[in-house]
Specification:
about 220 residues, alpha/beta, 5 strands
């Protein structure tokens, strides 16, 4: 039996029909890794795509986690090049993550990406849960990156941007294998941490870098 078709304009459509044409999808990449920044992207798609459909360059656009690396790169190039799309990308580095925690850092990156959009969005579709610090009307959507084209496009920009950063960090600190595991806690990464200790992009508030609490006597 064929899988049911998903309407990935389900959340944009009612907003556009009410006149809110600047609807931004926002998503992040890099909450879980032990190293590197958290990256957020915001994307505004044109409402006329309700009538025309997606351009051929974006056929198959979906949650970045469900795409191959080659497809992510293809969609990244398309989103960056199509004139009707507005987008912005922001990141928060490891020292700030250690200072304010990863959830707040993720929200800060999302806010920074949205703040770069000109003109600003009238409504934001957020992947996951509500972001209390957003100053725009918002709709949180669990698994939104697979349910909204706007969020899916943002997820691709965030993921590809972060993966490229980690490839660059791999050249700076080749002992850790960042190009392969992207900073996640794989066995290879943990072994490198054990052998060499953390480097400047490791999140020291994350286990196993986080200092152990001393037992109260």
């Amino acid at each position: 039996m064929a899988a049911p078709l998903i309407d990935r304009f389900e959340f944009e459509r009612p907003l556009w029909s009410r006149g809110a044409t600047l609807v931004a999808g926002v998503d992040e990449a890099g909450r879980g890794p032990l190293a590197g920044p958290v990256v957020a992207a915001a994307v505004i798609l044109p409402p006329q795509w309700l009538l025309t459909g997606l351009p051929v360059e974006l056929n198959g656009l979906n949650d970045s986690k469900q795409l191959t690396a080659d497809l992510r790169e293809r969609f990244y190039a398309a989103v960056m090049s199509l004139a009707d799309i507005r987008f912005a990308i922001a990141q928060v580095e490891a020292p700030q993550i250690d200072e304010i925690n990863i959830l707040q850092a993720t929200h800060r990156a999302m806010n920074a990406a949205l703040a770069q959009l000109r003109p600003p969005p009238e409504h934001v579709l957020v992947d996951g849960w509500r972001v209390p610090s957003l100053c725009f009307p918002q709709t949180p959507i669990v698994k939104g990156d697979a349910r909204s084209y706007s969020i899916a496009a943002a997820s691709v920009l965030a993921k590809v941007t972060r993966d490229r950063l980690m490839a660059e960090y791999d050249r700076q600190w080749p002992a850790y294998g960042f190009a392969g595991h992207k900073g996640y806690g794989t066995a290879q990464h943990l072994a490198a941490l054990s052998a060499h200790g953390p480097c400047p992009i490791h999140r020291r508030s994350f286990a196993p870098m986080k200092p152990q609490q001393q037992e109260l006597l």
